[in-house]
Amino acid sequence: MIASLPMYMRPETHAAYERYWSAIRIQLLEIGIEAPQTLSDVETIAHWQQQDMVFSQTCGMPYRLVLKDKVQLVGTPDFDITGCPAGYYKSVLIVNVQDDREKISDYRTSTLAVNAIISQSGFAAPQNMAKELGFKFENITLSGAHRASAQMVAKGDADIAAIDAVTWRDIQRYDRYESSLRIIDTTPATPGLPYICALHFDRNDIRQAVATAIAELTASDRDILGIKALIDIPSADYLSVLNP
Prior knowledge:
The protein is an alpha/beta fold. It has helices spanning 14-30, 45-48, 60-67, 120-132, 146-155, 165-174, 203-215, 219-225, 235-239, and strands spanning 2-3, 53-57, 71-78, 88-89, 91-96, 111-114, 139-142, 160-164, 181-186, 190-191, 195-198, 229-231. The strands form three sheets. Strands 1-2-11-3-12 form a five-stranded mixed sheet, covered by helices on one side. It has a five-stranded mixed sheet with strand order 7-6-8-5-9. Helix 4 (120-132) links the parallel strand 6 (111-114) and strand 7 (139-142). It is globular and about 55 Å long.
């Protein structure tokens, strides 16, 4: 069996996520679902499609493009993002503080740093926003991660980036380069990053295990992770989000 929580793991949150997984695992074992002691550190489409994948977290874009018929939605963690319905999130559009342009349209020919082409928050969201304004970001540089995108903008290696609001909250909390960045806009809210499992598992049992673990988080770990609750968002809501 394999399990992973790759999306918001960083050195400062790693221990809290390990404790969170341990609590989920205890609940799973109690109801007879085998679960690994440690989390895998992978984040690939192939990993999410493995039949022994008991628990992981994916992004809305790979879910609707690749995974929708190959995994089950377990539930979506609610990170209590300001201005978003429970379980939803948005991206913040960041630029360098030295850059005095004020509108997204001012960046139509600029370099957009993107964590991955299959990212809802880093690619689809800003491109869909640009489309509404009558253009498309053509100059794209791949960074491999939201934090790397933010660092590129802070260093002047890219002009603009769209950062997942949960990741941005952690950047503000932990990263010094945040002072070199400013927000010029936010994207519309879309369903957040869902927890998933392979098709043959009982997703209701896994959902209950996760919900119990969230309810039993210590105040300290709840503050570090930012998870408030587990929300049921229908698959149709993920599939209704437009591809750029």
